[in-house]
Structures are given as C-alpha cells and as structure tokens.
Design brief:
The complex is a heterodimer of chains A (269) and B (326).
Chain A (H helix, E strand, L loop, with lengths): L24 H13 L1 H21 L15 H30 L2 H6 L5 H30 L6 H14 L1 H13 L5 H15 L11 H7 L3 H14 L5 H25 L3
Helix pairs in contact in A: 1-5, 2-3, 2-5, 3-5, 3-6, 3-7, 3-8, 3-10, 5-6, 6-10, 7-11, 10-11
Chain B lengths: L2 H5 E12 L2 E12 L3 E5 L6 H9 L6 E6 L7 H4 L2 E4 L11 H9 L8 H7 L15 H13 L5 E5 L7 H15 L4 E6 L2 H7 L2 E6 L2 E6 L1 H6 L4 E7 L3 H5 L4 E6 L17 E7 L2 H10 L4 E8 L2 H9 L16
Parallel strand pairs in B: 3-7, 3-8, 5-6, 6-7
Antiparallel strand pairs in B: 1-2, 1-4, 8-9, 10-12, 10-13, 11-12
Helix pairs in contact in B: 4-5
Classes of the chains: A mainly alpha (269), B alpha/beta (326).
Amino acid sequence: MSTTAMPQQPDLMSRPVPGLGGFNLTMLKLEVRRLLRNRRTMIFTMIMPVVFYLIFGMTIPAGKQSLGAGSHGNVSAYILISMALYGAVLATSSGGAMVSIERSQGWSRQLRLTPLSPVAYIAVKMLAAMTLGAASVLAVYVVGLITSQANMPLAQWILTAFAVWIGSLMFAAFGLFMGYLLPTENVMQVQSFALVIFAFAGGLFVDLTAMPGWYQTVAQFTPIWGLNELVHAPVSGGVDNWAWVNVAAWLAIFVAGAAWRFRKDTARV
Amino acid sequence: MDPQEARNVIEAVDLHKSYGEVPAVVGIDLQVTAGEVVAVLGPNGAGKTTTLELLLGLRSPSAGRVTVFGLPPHHVAVRGRVGAMLQDTAAPESLTVTEMVDLVGHYYPHALPTADVVARADLLVHASKRVTQLSGGQRQRLSFAVAIVGDPDLLFLDEPTAALDVHARQAFWEQAREFARLGKTLLFSTHNLAEADLAAERVILINHGRIVHDDTPARIKSLIPGKTIELLTDATTDQLETVKGVQQVATLHDREAPGIRESSRPGLHRLRLQVAEPEPVLRAVFAAGHRVEDLTVTEASLEQAFLHLTGDQGDPATTAPRTRRH
C-alpha cells in the first residue's frame, strides 16, 4: 500500500544508550519507597528484630554478664548483633522476593521491553534491599543504645554493625535465587520461613554451646552459621576458621544459583 | 539491506513460531513503514499475540527473521524507540500513578515529562492514587502511559481495549490517535473489527498463524460480494437457510433493535441474513407467503467481511480465495 510523505526513520544514534545499563538514583529512591510501603516487609525487617531483641536480649537473666575471657561485650550485646543480623538477612532477601513478585505479575516482561539492562535491574533491587537492611540494623542498634543494657566498646558497635550489613549481602544472592526459583506472590513467606529454620539451625536463635553435640555438628553446615560466627567475632574475641569456609561455600551456592536462574530468565527464547 | 528495507520500521520475513508441535505463526511476511497505523486483526488463537511478541523480541522465531528500525528487536537502541502495552501485566502496586510513570520513564534515554504522559493518558485526577486504588479502565490507561513514557517512535498495543466498556474504548482510541498524530508508527492487535475500522488505516487479517489479507479497512469490506438484510418475519431460520443465495442467518435480539417490541408482533422475529444478492432472496421469501416487515438492506459490515474472509463461519464454499502479500 502506498504511503504519502510519511515520517522518516529516526536516527537511532540520536538517543545514546545511557551508561550503567540505565541505572540511576531515581530508580533506587522509588524502589526503596516501594519497600517502605509494604507493610509485611516493614514488620518482618524493622519491627520483628527490635521486638525479638527486647524480648530475648533484655529479659535474659545473664544479659549483663560478660561473654567470657578475651571477649569485648556482654550477653545482651551478643543477642543484639544476632537480631540485627536476622533483620538484615530478611531485608536483603526481600530484594529477591520483589523480583519474584514482578515475574509472577508479568511486570518483568514489560521491563524487558525497556532499555534497562537486566544487570542494572538486579543491581537496583539489591541496592534497595541493602538500604532496607541498613535501616533494619540501625533500628536494632538504636534500640540497643537507648535501652543501654547491651554493652560493648564503641569500636565494636560500629564494627559489628558494618559486619552485619555487609555480611547480609550474602542473603541478597539467596533471595534472588529463591525469587527466580519460586515465581509466586508468596515467596516472601517462603523465604521468611526458610530463614527462621536457618536461624535456629545455625545458632542465631539458640545458644549452640547449650545444644547436644550432633546439633552443633549439623549447625556448621547450615547457611547462617558461618556468617553468624563472623559478625560476632569482634565481641566474642575469636572465630572458628571453618566459618569462612561455610560462608564461602554458601555464598558460592547462592550466587551460582541466582546467576543460573537469572541467565535462564533473560535468555531470549 | 536495500533502501526500501532501510525505511521500514518493521521488516519481517517468513516468520515461523511453534510451541512444541503446535504451530502458532506459519510464514508471516510484513513490512511497516514509518507513520503507519496498522491493525492486526484476527479471532482468538489466530496468532496475533505471538506475532507481536516476535516483533517485540520477547520470543525468537523458529524460522525467518525480523528487524525493527533495521536492527534485531531486542537491541538496546531499539528498546529506546519502542513502547508496548502487553496483555496481563500488573504494575507494581505500592507506587502511585505519577511514581510509576516516573520510574519507567527513568529506564529510557529520552523520556517524556511525567506530567505530560499522565495527562495524555487522562489520569491527571488519579495521579496520586496508588495502583491498587485504580479501576480496571484506569489501570489500562496506566499501561498506556507506561508504554508511551519513553517517547517511542513505534508503539505496540496488544488488545489494548479488551477490558474496557464502549465509552472507555472511544476515549482510549482518541488518546492513541492523538499519539499517532505526532508521527508515530502504531501497530495494535484486536479482535474487535469496529476498532480496526475506527483506528487503523491498514488492516492485517491473521488467521491460523498466517496473514490472510492486508489492506485498507474499506477495501476489506468491499471484498465481500454480498449485502446484509435485516427484517422481521415469521419465516424460521431453517426455512431461510434453504433459500438459494443465503449465506448466513442470524437471530437478532431486542437489544439490537431497541425500537421493536417482539411481543407486539406475535409470531415475528428479527433476523439478519447474509446474502449474495438481495433481490432473488426477497422474491423467494415473498413467493413462499412469509410476512416481512421493517426491512433494511445494507452493505456488509467489517464484522461480516471478517467472518467471510477468514472462513471460520458460514459456508466454506462462499469463502473468498485467500491472498497473501509478498
């Protein structure tokens, strides 16, 4: 069919592809806002860890006792770090949950039609989750400071907070792996459940030294055990070298799993 | 690439796509030049959505090739020039309309101003509502806003008005035409023939995964040799179907002829006949002694042209020969 004086082809080069795969700070701001508006995420990542600290960290009879020779803090401080870690891993894994929800709603197909690169998309989600993780750690630590039962040197406050925050990035990979594996609106619940199991198994919710030998042996192979040991190292005064092995192995599994699913998802079939 | 091909916004050559053993698209050739408004028309399951997904690079063809602006459709430079409204996509719910449009705008190198896009999609009064608070029609308009925020030169709409009532449909096509007037190329799929007639200057008729016709809406209508007769009669559908020259008989209901009360015409019912020539048919009906009232004879509608051309209903013998563009 004939067309008269139709517009010409646009010059494709006149719209250069933006750098960083299209990443910019407005996206991060809006993604964080989405997380903050999600009531369930807020309860899981901000309120629950604080409440857990108030219940377990404040009421434990041995709270004010030192952790022992060579340590730099008391039992309440130890529990404070544990609860901050719990909140932070929930927060960082929620980034992966968002990916899953967007996939189940078909929104990720819409996103594939934009110039945003898949890597930038994941990076925005991870950074948003890390921002929430920082807020979660901050909330627990502020409550810990105000209630003034947790006791450790200033350097330990700062060091452990950063260790928890950076360490929780490991569970960003876990969240992403789960998010790609389970494209469902309920992925957040599945993740929370898995993390509770990990927290009990890895000694985050229980004192492993009070557990039977077989429990302690199994614990060392579970995903949170190594990270839990490492973030407590500044106050406990020493670290089991197997903790590094545990973290390295699980991080490799989560990253490989996430990368595998991610590649499958972005392959143009 | 020859110069003509370079001018084509969309260039598809012998596209095939099968899902396992099931063929969805079997040999689609298509050229769309800049500024065209094209309707892809066909019944459900004809291959419209698959065709659009191939053109969008959401799927890769089993055979054949497709280029958009001379490049593979998933090329990032093409992504910056193409917008699309897909079926069954739910926008993230915790953001407001403005935030949503702003967010997607930031994925594009040259986004339109957010406020302009919200206004263009007729969502200004709902701009600060969360996605959860929007009605179905408003969500559809948000999808439209998301599709145009990157200032695309080529816009795909996959059955964009499927969830809309008549008024919302008209408003939607007004918005879409407004956007096309900026010199954009627009390609939409629909199974609503009136919409193709209303909004498009070129209609591509797809059935069973191939293009059966590619022409203007007027030409497609003129391809139907017959006329449409509407009448009130005491003749039964069975009796009329046996009359020579009658291709199709359909019973019409009250709502299609609101002025007529069937109860006031006992024994009469309203029928629509698709015929090759009206005169011999009417002569036969009168000769048989049937009552005939409120008679109208019109050119076939696009709806009838569509059924006729795709050959999905009616007598196969009356189906026009299938044509293909090469």
